[in-house]
Amino acid sequence: MALTGLEIFKLLPKTNCKKCGRPTCLAFAMQLAQKKAELKDCPDVSEEAKSKLGEASAPPIKLVTIGTGEKQVKIGEENVLFRHDEKFYNPTGVAITLSDDLDDKAFTERLNKINNLKFTRVGTEIEIDLIALQNNSGDASKFTERAKEVSGSTHLSMILESKSDDSMKAALEICADKKPLIHGANAENWESMANIAKEKNCPLTVSAHTLEDLADLTEKIKGAGVTKIVLNQISENIKEILQGLTKIRRAALKKAFRPLGFPTLTFTPNGDPCQEIANASAFLAKYAGIVVVNACEPWQIMPLLTVRQNIFTDPQKPVQVEPKLYEVGQVDENSPVLFTTNFSLTYYTVEGEVEASRIPAYILAVGTEGTSVLTAYSGDKLNEKVVGKAMTDAKLGEKIKHKKLIIPGLVAVLSAKIQEETKWEVLVGPKEASGLPAYMKTNWH
Ligand code: SF4
């Protein structure tokens, strides 16, 4: 169990020297106990105290990395139950299953399909992270052959799923350098799986039906020398899975219960293809480190990745585009000019509708600290002066002949002031971006 603030205090130098940036050693100890400080901030702590305090200063949920290179997946090391308290740091890894008992053609087709599940949303590329290769054939040589094919033709990280240590050993002989997640250890095979994970220096999943059994297994596996552990509570019941994920997160953060202080992996029960994604989205929000789905159609995966993109943004920092003048299509000095704010969602919605109008246009993204049009207007971050300055900075006067500016219908109230400030003719556009194509075709000649 983690140490209390007073227990930590007894191990500190007690000189109140303030080198750690806190007024007293006691204040530092209290913050260390609450995971709000790091032990390295105190330069005078003794080696003996360091080893005793190591556990207290460790993150409540261990960071586990899977794979190598650019697509390495990092899970764990979260500090809060609710993202509005701080933010969630390491996005849930999305994995798609691939069974080794598919025939050659079906296997390669599904592998290629999984590899190509990439989308662009609000200017960011989003894609899945892992392929979960399943040893459903039960055949070690088949599993190895398939692991070789996956390893040689994917940029994604891998999960190797087999209960057989022979299959696992054989597959790892050819892809251990990719540092796949080994899935997995259970009450029967934990010793052999822990030995394999330790030898190959790969992370290991631990599976059990209850949290008590999971905690018991992680202690045994840690004792065997494996520290990169991922928890998997086995269940086909959605409610039970969500309860398990929540209890694990609570036990780690609120009770500092080290045996459950690891990230989690969750399988999504089979069923209706829409329901599968709805369930996976719920697990992603609370609190799966990795969610494994069977779905591999773009219409299923994109919503799941969209949920992840939304959950793992910092709620205190709106996603922004650079405030500047953007060109959509082959613009020239006669092209229409619209403005909106630099809130990503707003900007890309407007950009999409301008593209749909098929009329090349300039979009001036006015800097409003990433807030939407109405929010910026209400907070006085969007007014005639701000718009005028953005137009000057973008040198609109030198680029455009017609001197007409289309403004969002939501801030029609600013039209006279903007006109007076900029000396441009102001045209009030639609209130919703979806009205832009019709508006442009009707009003822009
Ligand atoms: S730096 Fe160390 S000794 Fe100095 S006040 Fe902080 S905790 Fe105490």
From TrEMBL:
GO molecular function: 4 iron, 4 sulfur cluster binding; iron ion binding; methyltransferase activity
Domain 4Fe-4S, residue spans: 1-59
Residues annotated for [4Fe-4S] cluster binding in this entry: C17, C20, C25, C42
GO biological process: acetyl-CoA catabolic process
Gene3D superfamilies found in the cross-reference section: 3.40.50.11600, Dihydropteroate synthase-like
Alphabetic keyword roster: 4Fe-4S, Cobalt, Iron, Iron-sulfur, Metal-binding
PROSITE patterns for the chain: 4FE4S
Pfam family, one: FeS
Positions of 5-methoxybenzimidazolylcob(I)amide binding: T340, T346, G370, T371, S372, V373, A433
The name this protein goes by in its record: Acetyl-CoA decarbonylase/synthase complex subunit gamma
Species classification: Bacteria, Pseudomonadati, Planctomycetota, Candidatus Brocadiia, Candidatus Brocadiales
